[in-house]
């Protein structure tokens, strides 16, 4: 979906396909047929943007076979779909029964992360619509925080500098500009926006910037105005933003609140949980850890890294951080010029919701994704952007 900003520029809205992951190119093609096109039809649009997730095997197939890449491009056009952004965070296995810490491997100190991301960039130049010259790729925020020393940090910075040089060369070759965005996430080396400033300044290239994920920002209780002001002062670009909402519990000391939270403690994904105390931010790596005894102080609200559907907050006594998303979006695109032009709804946890909240079949999932995009569209038009055909 495309929107015209009052300054005349185009802002793109997509939804991320890691919600129905596939490891192979055939699986990606099936996604377009079974999920993406049905969402587009529900929205009554001739064109729908998707933030494509390409696992290692699918990315390699497209990067090494020009005919396969042309075939995917044709399939996108045939189904009324377009791609301006890729989710390059998960490498493989995102549909596994247990993902947890595996999603952070390989990290930016591993040469395979550089090669995979460079392959994604080459693929994206071949997928961009004819009238679009700028693409974006979100990626993990350097590494999970453990086993990350000064040597690995320097290796990661060198890899990002190398990537930036390759992206410069790629634009010279194709005329398409691709930028990469570190996505701060709780528990990682770059947990917050502020954590990103030093390493990105050290990289020193505007090809590499930030992906503001509004669930992650809310989970870490970041003050969004301060975060975005700090980025601007550092001269670091917001390459893209993922529109997502975290799980919020206002009174985690109450037994009924803990019981409600326990329904969201599930075995597939990591749900980092945070609270603010007088001594600063405290947290656990997963929601079940927070619920075990006194692992996390409960005098103040808890927020958990669980991407809940934008349009359907959990029932009381829980809620979501949708108000954070709304405020951040107003700051990103509500001013005289957009701070980013790539927006992506990223609720990948539909099938990890408590059983009674999960969609029953493809049709209900498509309905839910369409409802999320409708909410995002309405937020954008309320900010003065005009939806384009």
Blueprint of the fold:
Blueprint: E1 2-4, E2 10-16, H1 25-43, E3 48-53, H2 56-64, H3 66-78, E4 81-87, H4 111-127, E5 134-139, H5 150-174, E6 177-182, H6 193-203, E7 208-213, H7 214-219, H8 224-234, E8 238-243, E9 245-249, H9 255-262, E10 273-277, E11 280-284, H10 287-291, E12 302-308, E13 318-320, H11 322-333, E14 342-345, H12 362-382, E15 386-387
Parallel strand pairs: 2-3, 2-14, 3-4, 4-5, 5-6, 6-7, 7-8, 8-14
Antiparallel strand pairs: 1-2, 1-15, 9-12, 9-13, 10-11, 10-12
Helix pairs in contact: 1-12, 2-3, 2-4, 4-5, 5-6, 6-8
Task: Please explain how this structure is put together.
The structure is a single chain. By secondary structure, this protein is an alpha/beta fold. Helices cover 40% and strands 20% of the residues. The strands form two sheets. Strands 2-3-4-5-6-7-8-14 form an eight-stranded parallel beta barrel, surrounded by seven helices. The radius of gyration is 20 Å and the shape is globular.
| Uncertain residue segments | none
For the largest beta-sheet, the strand count, sense and barrel status come to: 8 strands, parallel, barrel
C-alpha Rg, in Å?
20 Å
Termini, distance in Å? 8 Å
Count all strands and give the number: 15
Structural class: alpha/beta
Shape: globular
Strand content: 15-25%
* H and E order: EEHEHHEHEHEHEHHEEHEEHEEHEHE
Count of helical regions: 12
Which sequence of strands runs across the widest sheet?
2-3-4-5-6-7-8-14
Quote the average pLDDT.
Answer: 97
Which percent range fits the helix content? 40-55%
